[in-house]
Amino acid sequence: MNQEERMYVVGSQKITIQEEIIGKRILDIGGGGEGIIGLCYGDRVIAIDPRKDELEEAPDGPLKIVMDARELSFLKNSFDAVTSFFTLMYINKDDHEKVFREIYRVLKDNGEFVLWDAIIPEYDGSIKDIFVIQLEIDTPIKIIKTGYGISRKDKDQDVEYFISIGENLGFEAIKVESQDKVFKIIFRK
Ligand SMILES: C[S@@+](CC[C@H](N)C(=O)[O-])C[C@H]1O[C@@H](n2cnc3c(N)ncnc32)[C@H](O)[C@@H]1O
């Protein structure tokens, strides 16, 4: 079977990044690849990603550091904001709570965690076992068309799932926007 036959494709989802993210220092989790947050917010961003090649591919501007979101090497209360742009879908669900805990720790009080991600349905055992989401991202710099893909197994997730993880750790979900199969949640510490 070829790759295309295995793909469960969610077609073009539109995302606009326009609102200002609070504060001077932003930590972007999984900031490699297209590096959308680094592109938009430049040298205010520290982009971490365990994959050096993904960081090298991302646009210049941020300080890029090879690091895993499950174990951040920063001291507590270090950042005004933390962002995750379609990164949590790449991280096993078993590790989500650990990542949220780390984000909470490194955020300053009243700091914000801005999470963009996909709504992924439960895997039904079909041959379409690769989830692909196609995005059209409207940034203040340019429009970027891209797609992110992962194995579907044990990856089902939605807005309520993430709000529950965040609130159990002490975050307050202060803004929730969802449209079709993508969402944005702003959590405040
Ligand atoms: C495809 S990118 C998502 C989009 C990316 N944020 C952007 O702006 O283009 C997902 C990234 O998450 C990274 N990632 C996977 N596991 C991670 C982890 N445990 N901690 C931090 N980043 C991780 C991957 O290496 C990959 O670069």
TrEMBL record:
Domain of life: Bacteria
Keyword set includes Secreted: no
Keyword tags: Methyltransferase, Transferase
One Pfam family in the UniProt entry: Methyltransf_11
GO MF annotation, one: methyltransferase activity
InterPro entries reported in the protein's UniProt record: Methyltransf_11, SAM-dependent_MTases_sf
GO biological process, one term: methylation
Domain Methyltransferase type: 27-115
Protein name per its UniProtKB record: Class I SAM-dependent methyltransferase
